[in-house]
């Protein structure tokens, strides 16, 4: 009798243990399979909304945030620049640290009708302090500007150019007149750049997907480019921390307009740090 009771207890205990282990197994399997199901659904949803991209990497990588200091330009190096002089608004007599210089050329420098970028690159290399540290970004014909950003390890240090915040750190802007001549420029620079933390980064495709469910990407959007760089949301007085980001360029068309959008996405966690939109008549 005792043996039968003992046997029954053992059977019940092992049955409970089997149920527990089965539950653990299927729960673990569900957790492991859920991201795959979610990703598949996300890609299907994007396809249904006619959101397209090509040649974007699906590979994640490692990257670092960087720290940097604003460079203080010495009066002696400013005075050593030949064929140019400080603009009247740039007052160096007060003795305040100069972190941005604004200069005028004694003689305007003509730009060619074609391949403006090559000539602009030549001006920056030859006429500007440490010009090789900057890389061409874009030509803004509406503002008569040719813009260069500083780079680190070949990647742009993106600038916050929204709302005329004047928070630029590490850029050169050439100003040209109606005769297509460069007449002046402004320059800021970062120095003592150091890597401060290495982390896992999402892929370019992962950054695009991070824009989808929060509804940043509208139907019929086309991803034009995705570029890895650095960005800071909160410019400080001197020391800065820049995080690795993806800059995503998007284009979509409506009935009468072509809309260009730009998104800055944190490459560490997919958070959207900045958005910008520009509309053009079709």
From TrEMBL:
GO cellular component: membrane
Keyword Transmembrane helix among UniProt keywords: yes
Entry keyword set: Membrane, Transmembrane, Transmembrane helix
Ranges where the Regulatory protein YycH-like domain occurs: 32-267
Domain of life according to the entry: Bacteria
TM regions (residue ranges): 6-26
InterPro entries per UniProt: YycH/YycI_2, YycI-like
Pfam family, one: YycI
Keyword DNA-binding: no
Protein's name according to its UniProt entry: Transcriptional regulator
């Amino acid at each position: 009798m005792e043996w039968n009771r003992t046997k029954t207890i053992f059977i019940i205990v092992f049955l409970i243990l089997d149920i527990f282990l089965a539950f653990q197994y299927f729960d673990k399997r569900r957790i492991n399979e859920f991201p795959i199901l979610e990703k598949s659904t996300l890609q299907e949803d994007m396809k249904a909304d006619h959101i397209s991209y090509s040649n974007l990497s699906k590979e994640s990588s490692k990257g670092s945030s960087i720290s940097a200091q604003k460079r203080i330009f010495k009066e002696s190096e400013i005075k050593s620049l030949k064929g140019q002089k400080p603009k009247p608004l740039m007052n160096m007599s007060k003795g305040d640290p100069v972190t941005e210089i604004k200069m005028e050329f004694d003689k305007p420098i003509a730009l060619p009708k074609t391949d403006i970028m090559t000539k602009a690159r030549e001006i920056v290399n030859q006429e500007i302090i440490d010009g090789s540290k900057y890389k061409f970004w874009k030509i803004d014909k509406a503002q008569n500007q040719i813009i260069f950003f500083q780079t680190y390890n070949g990647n742009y240090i993106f600038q916050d150019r929204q709302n005329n915040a004047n928070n630029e750190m590490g850029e050169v802007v050439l100003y040209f007149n109606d005769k297509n001549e460069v007449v002046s420029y402004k320059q800021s620079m970062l120095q003592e750049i150091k890597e401060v933390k290495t982390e896992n980064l999402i892929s370019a495709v992962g950054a695009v997907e991070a824009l989808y469910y929060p509804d940043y990407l509208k139907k019929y959007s086309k991803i034009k480019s995705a570029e890895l760089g650095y960005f800071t949301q909160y410019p400080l007085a001197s020391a800065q921390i820049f995080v690795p980001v993806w800059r995503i360029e998007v284009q979509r068309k409506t009935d009468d307009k072509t809309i260009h959008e730009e998104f800055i996405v944190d490459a560490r966690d997919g958070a959207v740090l900045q958005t910008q939109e520009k509309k053009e008549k079709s």
